[in-house]
Batch of 4 targets.
Target 1
Amino acid sequence: MRKPLLALAAGLLLAGSLSAASAADKLKVGFIYLGPIGDLGWTYQHELARQALVKELGDKIETTYLENVPEGPDAERAIEQLVRAGNKLIFTTSFGYMDPTLKVAKKYPNVHFEHATGYKRDKNMSTYSSKWYQGRYIQGLIAAKMSKSGVLGYIGSFPIPEVVSGINATMIAAQTINPNIKVKIIWANTWFDPGKEADAAKALIDQGADVIMQHTDSPAAMQIASERGKLAFGQDSEMIKFGPKTQLTSILDTWGPYYIERVKAELDGTWKSEDTWGGLDSHMFAMAPYTNMPDDVKKIAEDAQAAITAGTLHPFKCPVVGQDGKEIECKGGANLADGQILGMNFYVKGIDDKLPGK
Amino acid sequence: MELVEAIILSVLAASTPLLIAATGELVTERSGVLNLGVEGMMIVGAACGFGGAWLTGSIFIGALFGIVAGILMSLIFALMALGLAVNQVATGLALTIFGVGLSGLIGAGFVGERISPAAHLTIPGLTEIPLIGHVLFGEDGFVYFSIALIIGAWWFLYRTRAGLILRACGDNHVSAHALGYPVLRIRTFAVMFGGACAGLAGAYLPLAYTPFFIPGMTAGRGWIALALVVFASWRPGRLVVGAYLFGAVTILQLHAQGFGVGIPSQFMSALPYLATVIVLVLLSRARTGGSTAPAALGTVFVPDR
Amino acid sequence: MQLVLEKRTERSNTIALVSPLIAIGLTIVTMTILFAILGKNPLLALQAYFVAPLTDGYSLQEIAVKATPLVMIAIGLSLCYLANAWNIGAEGQFLIGAVAGSWIAVKTQGTDAGAWVLPVMLVLAAAAGALYALIPAICKVKFGASEILTSLMLVYVADLLLDYLVRGPWRDPNGFNFPTTADFDPVATVPVLIEGGRLHLGSIIALLVVAAAAILLGRTIKGFEIRVVGAAPRAARFGGFNANQLIILTFAVSGALAGLAGIIEVAGPVGHLQPGISPGYGFTAIIVAFLGRLNPVGILIAGLFLALTFIGGEQAQIAMKIPLDVTKVFQGILLFYVLACDSLILYRFKLVFPNRQVARGAG
């Protein structure tokens, strides 16, 4: 009994080393994921992009990922493990990997790194992120049109600039349709707890909100809105399956084109450190089809999308007025400067709530 | 729907998985066994429960899958902690690590799928009564079952001879053994009951709460169930109060935010835990004669022969 | 057929040595089957888990870095558990230590504060961890409130406090509002031992802690008291030992060690305070304490071994594309086997074929 098993194992070992040898001349590309690949949200979208990458360039590259890597002391090791396994281009896909990525980048100057949503760069470390607030602006228009109660419900994860700028863009847009529109904001203090996200959605609906927006990752809120016959927007991924009569649209993280472009650059030897903050024009994210709304609303949304893509409409066009009624200093000419949006730490006029930590 | 009624409905839904899991753990602990693996059993129950319902299209069969999965997990615990006299704290923690991994493997097959959630009761004429109609006559089956379960557990523990024997095992396994009761067998059944409840509580999440499966979706509810048992000082009546209180604080802090109450949300999130500590201290203080924990809780028992 | 345990008249030292080997053997057999089912080459997989991380200096350093907080916390917990005091809130004490130490680091940031900063951080973190651990200990001694529950509840409170601080008052002013403090100054950082690596002074401190615990338990009256109170509470009462005092003491010591581990992790491998500094160290350390049989040297070995499975799990994910969930299942199975085999030290396993209805007579 034992001998055949050993022989089998030896055979497998041989086969394994053979396939490893043939893969040696391919470019190795590594990914660090925050969640499980099946989270249906943030990590899932990165994983879909990796699969798109493999589909496009699979004959030239070999990809590896580490999932569920916490943003603490383990991250640096995980990244370095990928380097030591021979990966030459590594995507670290969460804000919390910023310092670990930088540390490893300094140690391995010949390896290239791509860090999502951060702001620290180096000769061999790029950053990339999306101007999601553009999508939020479109959602704000739709929401104001579709809301009968005039109250929007917003589930936030954490009050970081990415989320705050999304809330502001939503309200700026909504006020152009209905100056008296209200938004109720609940911070779930988690990116990911379907039960809690569902509870938050219920609370918002019970308090009179009839359009639910979320900046957390699971489809729980969509599904609650669907159960209650309300409307909602998806987040990160296509969530229409969870609310066929509910989803108005969804901001889809479409990292695929970016990943393919960067890997191609690496293959050509033209990769260099860059800061990519892409919007609708550069396809860093996409809007899911506009559904469950009348044609006139759909047209407003499509027009806004076209204008933003063309660069003729900017959600943070000056003057932007803060909660206290004072104008925000306009550092970017006609619009708020990118730095002001990336570090956004105030609510605009019309939001009754108080920003946590202020 | 009125706001008060809506809040009560949300609280009931949020409390139900806690109540079910905690009822199981209460009976387990009353027999003298501390199983810290509730979270692990719950998440496997969630994965199997969803899988069952997705494959068969039946919520009921899904719930059964969850129960069976929970029982199988608890049998690993029983084999280790009762059969082999291994430390219960360590075994329970190991069971949770194992369960989290196992549920991920099981769940990989149906990530992104959805089912239609458990139906809610409707009795024409009754469900429409304002304020109490939906609360009393419009819940899903799990909610009613959880209440029946805790009443059943109370009746069993305090009104039946078997319950008396089970409690005796928890208070003094040496005497119980000397009286001729099969301590280990009784404890095994108690552990299995705990597993069944944890599995069902886990299954409740993808079957009724959010009808899809995502790895890690129990998000610490198993640990809260454990805390509730101690909070309730091992009494079924107090367990009901505790579970609904905990659910209420969770839901109310969300509502307070919606109304724009300007307290740091971290503080509000910390409230249930702080409240538990304070209530526990007050309860322990008011009590005379020390703790009401089952005296043999968590200790190893190996019958002499 | 029934499995029956029979108490050995004295603990078997042979089995004490052999049992981990049996456990590892059983794990390898089980995992070989599991890998085969998953269609992965078992030999390569096991090599990635157990052998690859031991073959180069980098991985060895990483194992030591990962094991450092686990060992430090587990040593403190073992003292508690030996004295029958159930501290399962080490995670919270770890976080509070990290917060308290970081306070100095944040307040001295950018000043010309000298070499005193790091030592003060360490001391303050240990003190804060001890004080935080004293809350459940005092609630237990004064009011009889279960320390298992109170210490566990306080974990969440500590976590949320840290969260509040780094999102509010201590947030890095140049950090685009992201929830983290600025990077600590060099004087507030735990020095690295080998240039270019991550092995840091904390690992030496952990070794000292192991040695100190071994001396405490083996050579001192206090250590004897701790063991007697835990093993034979009645005898201890006759001996005039004060169990309550020992609960306070062991909780304080374990809180201090957890707090120290917290600040070392923050001022070492992480370099700043942020949410998520602990991937559950406080809970994993409970398992380490039991795997190490509540013995200081055993804990050291157990900590290193568990760290090996984490590093190996990553290498298996990279080299073999084995999902992380398999690593968790693998860790669970390994823990089951190790714990079960340890049971052999105290008991003999016997299979009994039931022909007996006698024993139930008195029921």
Target 2
Amino acid sequence: MKTRLRKWRLISLFAIMTLILAGCGEANLSALRPAGEVAQKQFNLMVLSTLIMVLVIIVVVVLFVIAIVRFRRKAGDESIPKQVEGSHKLEVIWTTIPILLLIILAIPVVTYTFEFADTSAMEVKDKDGKTKDAVVINVRANLYWWEFEYPDYGIFTSQDLVVPTDEKVYFNLKASDVKHSFWVPAAGGKMDTNVDGVNQMYLVFDSNKANEAENLFYGKCAELCGPSHALMDFKVVTKSKDDFNSWVKSMQTVAKEPAVAEGELAKQGQEIFNQSCIGCHAVSTSNNGAGMGPNLANFGERERIAGFLPHDEENLKNWIKNPDDYKPGNTMSGKYGDLTDEQIDALAEYLLNLKVEDK
Amino acid sequence: MSTYAKKQGFGATLWDFMTTVDHKKIAILYLISGGLFFILGGLEAVFIRIQLAIPDNNFMSAGIFNEMITMHGTTMIFLAAMPILLGIMNAVMPLQIGARDVAFPFLNSLGFWLFFFGGVVLNLSWFLGGAPDAGWTSYASLAIHSEGHGVDFYVLGLQISGFGTLIAGINFLVTIINMRTPGMTYMRMPMFTWTTFVVSALILFAFPPLTVGLFLLLFDRMFGANFFDVAAGGNTIIWEHLFWIFGHPEVYILILPAFGIFSEIFSTFSRKRLFGYSSMVFATVLIGFLGFMVWAHHMFTVGLGPIANAIFAIATMAIAVPTGIKIFNWIFTMWGGSVTFTVPMLYAVSFIPSFTMGGVTGIMLGAAPADYQYHDSYFVVAHFHYVIVGGVVLGILAGVTYYWPKMFGTMLNETLGKFTFWLFLIGFHLTFFVQHFLGLMGMPRRVFTYLPGQGWETSNLISSIGAIFMSVGIIILLINIVITSVKNVRVGNDPWGDGRTLEWAIPSPPPFYNFKQLPLVRGLDAYWIEKMEGKKEMTPAEPLDDIHMPNGSIIPICITIGLFIAAFGALYNMDNKTWSVPVIIIGLLITFGSMLVRSLKDDHGFHIHKEELMDDKDKEVKA
């Protein structure tokens, strides 16, 4: 028994060590480091349920250890223990106490369920049909990329979701091909983007927590959607309300007068783009083209290439050369024929200079 | 007797097993094929853990990875866990209620072969253009989008093996209702028989929704229907409902037999009757009932609205109460007992803390608003492996070790068994404990790779190391089985010494007719009661007489092979192959032709004559 106990101790020690080593995860990604009201409440609920459950585990384990230590059969013991039928009193105790514990848990569960589902602010419109006091973003999930539309401002972007801090940001969620799921772990739980209809939810990004995360949160697709499900990441860029408003302004400016390429190489690139890419990718913020590919109007300011590769020229060129090497099963491969290295250089130059803010 | 037990050549043995309708031989078939699929599913798991051991790994491609996870889940649930449990039920339940066989021996054989060929169809996909890759849940939008024939193999394989399971469930229900020996009232049935009974009812009600769902998907994929095509007015959420209306009870179909096995083991190795037997029965029935009321907790993030989410959250939590009752009753079965730690008991004992951990995370998942964070993350992966490995697989390992002597007449080696136990248990906690935290740290499930720098490296590596421990444990178990079979030391009726129920009152393995005379049951733990009164065997409830037995039959395999052939016709129908429709027709002709033969040909079985049975008894007395 002693050796067994020692083994158990080792295992639990190991588990605790692991925990400490791993910490609570990254500030921009972990549900254990909540960065806003929704995530915070969910975190509190996790803590409450964990406490109740740890209590249950302790009771079970204590009784269990006593039972297996005290009532071990001694060598040569052939006695027959008393055949107890049961105990009415005990049965009542271990039926009632769990029920009480569950009621304690059930109250916040029901409350939060309704609270998180309250998206009524999205429905309050002013006379122009715009949402009155809330930022609303339409999220459209596609095979391995995300589109974000700001219907009240008439602008589109993709892959990088830009949100204001310290207020409720509302989302309309939908998928255009297969089911995906929209998840920003640090800011709150996920919601599926169905192909059948629109789901609504809201998230809040706290400005202090956002600073800790350097104003950049990681978003994930949480529902298996094909080979590149693991790579269907997006980023959330948080801005103060003022910065957000000015970002919206500059996006709207580009919507009116689409960017013109500057420089010889970039102009060449634009030509190639207009022949090979524009069928799927829009470069104006006012529309999403045919909706086939991510809007590229502010591509030069993106955080990542293809949602997950470091944002630099080399990765962009490699990506254009053979997207399937990076995101197997994507819908871009094979749509634009073979481009020469020179063409790709020009294209990269053009794309990396598509910016809306620092003009 | 001697005529039945003589040594046979390999061909004859094979023919014997192909035509057998004996529940004990069918149990062995279930165990062997379930075991093979378990190893297959285990290999897939190991490959998954190799791929995820380090970030940005290139061990396998994204496409292959999705096939691996799909086949791992599907294989483990449908082709490993369930068949092995059905095998143990087949081996033990008729003995526990004092029956000579199940109610429909022919159907029992048919059920097995359907399951087996269904599993073969599914696994042939690896060699015929790629395995299914839409996850074991095969959500409709992805399943429709998936190219190649993978998902078709999934649909047809599960359809065929699902019929087999349904048949087995109905058979067990009828058997338990009609074939209990005199004196075996419902409230004297051993706990394992009770769980078999409830599980069979669950199978009866849970499998039809799956069958319906699979048919819809089959028509969509193979015959151009639009049930799940939103553009054509279909709806994909329907699939999720159908799948989980089946899928959640399925979890209880797996865990309840394990509960039954543990109940037998706890009371045997504590030398004490099961504490709170009637509340255990009540809890089992209640779990079975509530199991149908909670399916939407798999769909909290689908957007069903707060009312549905709140109701299903509360219903889910309610299941914790009967499960808690069970846990405490097991502890108090040991309390005051005389506990001995054989290998089955070690599994049973370790099951309590392991399963409790899986259970409490289940309640955490049931808290809908928090589930928005857990859902589809590694937290869920950790939870259901804690329940299924910490509950079902430990139960299977315990049950196989416990009933091995009854099924094969020889004991597995205890020392090697303990090696397996410790390696498996340590490996299991190592693999899955850290996954809770991976999920909370933002790692979605079913990802084929992850980028470095997201804080997930250490935990994933630990998890993969745990998988090695588990694999080594299983390898030692296989070695143990080989060694035991070669040595083949025969054991008597009650090899564990403390058997309480009817199966331990007869030889190991039992004669093919099980009970020479049906035993008279005088209370719960019938054999224990007789033992306590100093008797060596059960009091017979009938005079020695001729026993009527069914004949073996090859027809079940013929029926199944017909469906197997038809499945390939249906599968390639969407490629516009000219041969596909004729193949469907030929296959179905074989199936229905075999059924017709079965219906028209009278088969009255045979009788074992009184005299033969008497000879047998005389021989035993002389020896």
Target 3
Amino acid sequence: MGNPLLVFWKSLFDAEDEPRSRRATLRIAAASSAQASATIFLILRRMRTPLIVLIVIFAVSVLGLAIIPGQDLDGRPARMGFFDAFYFMSYTASTIGFGELPNPFTYSQRMWVTISIYLTVIGWAYAIGSLLALVQDRAFRSALALQHFSRKVARLREPFVLVAGYGRTGELLGHSLDGLGRRIVVLDHDSERIDGLELDSYHADVPGLAADARDPGHLAVAGLDHPSCEAVVALTDDEEANLAIVMAAALLRPELPVIARVTSHALAERMQAFGDPSLVNPFDRFGDHLRLALRAPASYQLLTWLESGPGGELTTRGAPPRDGRWVICGYGRLGRELSADLRAEGLEVSIIDDSPEDADDPALLVGDGTDPWVLAQGDLDRAVGLVAGTGNDTTNLSLVAAARRSRPGLFIVARQNRPASAPLFAAMDIDALLVPSEVVAHEVYGQLSTPLLWRFLREMPGRGDAWAAGLIDRLTAVCGTRLQALWKVRLNRSEAPALGAWLASGSARLGDLLRNPEDREEPLRALVLLVLRRGEATLAPDDDFVLEAGDELLLAGRPGARRALGTVLHVEPVLEYVLSGRRVPSSWIWRKLTRTPVAGADSRQ
Amino acid sequence: MNLEKVVFGFFVVLAATLNFGFFIGDISDPALHNPFELFAAVVVNLIATVLKFGDRTQIGAVHLATSLVAVLQLVAAALAYGYAEYVSTAGMNESWTASVVSLSGGALLANLVSIVLLVVETVSFHRG
């Protein structure tokens, strides 16, 4: 059975080359919302019996009152009409009780009313009780939550990031993105985390759903098929679930960027089979960071600062030993990565683990690392650095304490597994602390914030340590030790309408533009980190850099400077003042009267 | 035999028959239209409507819609009857009777559609 109109419509428009995947996701979303409405139907079905009981009780009571003969004030026989009976039963059943209307009842009527009072009270209690039980029902509440959530997501008009898995990492990432003014949608199987979302201090409203992200239907409801969805981030602590999310996103929306957290190489390979997801391995990344920290402490310092998001504090620059022996305690995923990375740097490594899975490494020593004797066996007295990298925070802390006692000047790298241990590790004053959730959050933030920042972070280590140290000095001069706003500007007609003629002149020096529009003698408190021109990046250009139309600029600086620069880019008289120091009237009439030519205005006529 | 189907069919048919019983007769003669029958028709129609709650099929949705129409018309008829009896000074005269009965006639049409749907559903039900 089919609706002929629908069939016609289908045959008319199905020929269009609409992507197949798009239709598939739409279908999935529809199936999922149908699931929600199915629960509502179930609830309606369950209300059948109480409602019918109520109707029957009312009908019987009203009918009885209408049949039983009564009498009026003068003692003449008078029956109650249906309206009188219904009116009386309504106020009696709802325990309001106005008394015997319109006439005092006879005894036969009172007997009937006594019975009906008990009947109706039971009927009401049953109906209201069932209704309240339904409202408390888990299935009903989750169906309501799903509907509420899907409505919120469907109404989103701004671009948003779909974050699957809202643990510590998701929270950090959410706050960094929120600080940039970006919207996120959250999916997590733990309803407590989703409830916690309401207590979190976000600027924007964050829709969250407690559901299994492995289900493509839930992903679709969370906005996988939404046109404004700009990226999918899989951050659950279950690797299989991350793989399922990567698969769903790659198959249903192949054009969307996907970022997934992964710690095992086997799963990373399986994920890579689906499209081109960007994979973040916290141990791998930390190993790279440690290598960078060993080779170029200032570059590492700049990297961590920029990755920490708006409001991030500048960390102190460490001075890790460049040569000597390292002792690595714990030969798990982190231990393997770090031993490979340190060896690649040409450093000697000895490894201690109490129960290694495969003892293939010649430098491996089996034993309990917290035992001073075992540590001594690992050549601790000749070592320059120690890695406390087991999966247990207590062990890591006691490793650090034991190593410090025998060799106070050791460079300590430690892994913090649980967020609750953070104050203990902070009190230990660790030289390089690995918090896997933070590494992942910072990395994903770097990739998602703006493509320019990601580009900058990737190219920056190649510039050398001295360059990075110089840039840190320039940055701290502009915005202090706390990272302020980070924004990008594209020098085109819509984002910088005032700049047209100046850019075309070919002598548009960057230093001339970055001046305070209140007083041009003062420089603007902002720094250009990167200029992207036709795919080529120039990192931290100096004041003599010549800008061209179409350049993309990544700037860091104070929020006030961002507003000031916005004014300069949009208002021609302000630009004129900043460039030349001439005050130009801003109104058209006054300009005509004083016959002042304006650089930007002339170019358009 | 399914007891639920028996109850459902019983109420749908009873709603239509009671409605028919009230409707039949000279449209303007109050003596031919018993208010008790109207009351019974309203109650049975209400029950039939509630029985149709929560059916997700297409035919179930149309069932519910026809029942809602019938209830709406019958409640309107009952209100008109109450107004004529208690509020209007004219009482249950010919024109009031005619409007009450014609409203119930509309409900009868909806109930007939309901019965047709019931029959269609039964006929199109294939065993195995």
Target 4
Amino acid sequence: MKLIIAYVKPEKLTDVKKSLFDAEVYKMSVTNALGCGQQKGYSTTYRGVVTEVNLHKKVRLEIAVNDGFVDSTIEAIIRGASTGQIGDGKIFVVDLGECVRIRTKERGSFAIG
Amino acid sequence: MKFRKIAMRSIMFAAPLLAVCATAFGDVEAAPTVQSNAEQIAASQTSINTVWMLVCAFLVFFMQPGFAMLEVGFTRAKNAANILMKNLMDFSIGSLAYWAIGFGIMFGTSRGGLFGTSGFFLSDGDPSTGDGMWKIAFWLFQVVFAATAATIVSGAMAERTKFKSYIFYCVFICALIYPVVGHWVWGGGWLSKLGMIDFAGSAVVHSVGGWCALAGAIAVGPRLGKYGPNGKINAIPGHNIPLAALGVFILWFGWFGFNAGSTTSGMNLSIGVIAVTTNLAAATGAVVAMITVWIWHGKPDTSMTLNGALAGLVGITAPCANVSPSSAVIIGAVAGVLVVLAVEFVDRILKIDDPVGAISVHGICGAWGTLAAGLFAQSKYGGVDGLFFGGGFSQLGVQALGVVSVFAWSFISASVLFAVIKIVVGLRVSPEEELRGLDIEEHGIESYSGFQIFTTQ
């Protein structure tokens, strides 16, 4: 079992959801996130004063999958989120120790699927 | 006992006042003549008229924040500062354009009943006479109307129009497009000579704004994500319904000045009827729009009901002084149904993206209000009978001609204007900017700094 964590551009979320659904991945959590990478944030002006290093708005997707789905999920996220421009985001994959479905108390890969 | 006390007190106050008057005017001893009385009465009337018109002008000015809150509420958080800037600038730039050019075109000496040619830069107002002062105050009352027509468009073109282009548009609607129609109907032009009824501006103000909004929304195209590639229609919900509701309440409040103030005279007691018809039509518009959308979609949709109140107000604006309270209820009811149908028609069939429903509320219900004056007018209110009260088709024909000619002029001239703007400075922001929000890209600021907002659409 793996936990896939992806940070993508907020406006690409619709496309990412669509490509995940097309790849038959229907389970995900999405949260608002702020962050900066190579772009090093952006600046705004407020009453003539420049504010630097504002963190970009991103969304964070968390998707727990069984090992067989890891590659297809990653590919689907890339397909949906990629514009080829700087700021498209990153994907992290970490091992997942356990997963429990609260309603049925199922554990492990049954609970994920 | 008590009476005597009051009498004593009155004398105590009145005596020094009389003394002051005597020193100030000197001739207080002279017995009033018929002529001096007539002059005094005329001066008082001018004062009452000026005061009434100014109070109403201030009320109509308050419709600007009403529009601002309505539009900001019905659009997304990432574009809030942009839409507020548009609302601020269409009043500010519009005021200057209307002062320099617009007012002269609207109320100047008529050239063939088409446009006025004098009084630019408010040069006609003579501050040394009461009537001259009234005329200067009259400019203020007119400029808030011009700005109302201008501000309608910002909602329909929200979330995707370049700020710079919008500024160009503001100048032209307040200097040219709106004043020409205003001259036709209110400035002694050809439609007023035909006897067209548009008491407070269903056609002059709201239709002009609505048809310019139609031209603008067509020229700029729909927002990204509004219409999917395979014809799917997506809703893009506004981010703050409480602000939109506040905007509608403010507009409703301001509308009492808009309609009742259009007598431009506090001596004209039809202001009572006007305030009543205005309120009844707005109330009916809201109720009927709510019922319509409830039956159609199963829920009393808040944003559509808010639009319904405005539809009733726009509908009653032309006939408010000419119809009975019962007729106002019918006019409001038709506007309430019409606005729901029109919003769906514009959104689903024409596929024109109008985030706040400006085309439906102001364009279509404005046309309905103008026609309604020809149907429901009663001579005991405004001196003219409409079709339903034995007046035949003549008034309705004039009203229909007004609707068509106002549409033709404002839609065509606005289309040309937007086409020129598109070539010269461009009309639409880049897709990247649109996705990120106009606040950051156009103004370098965030409206909700410190808040987390979703920008996933």
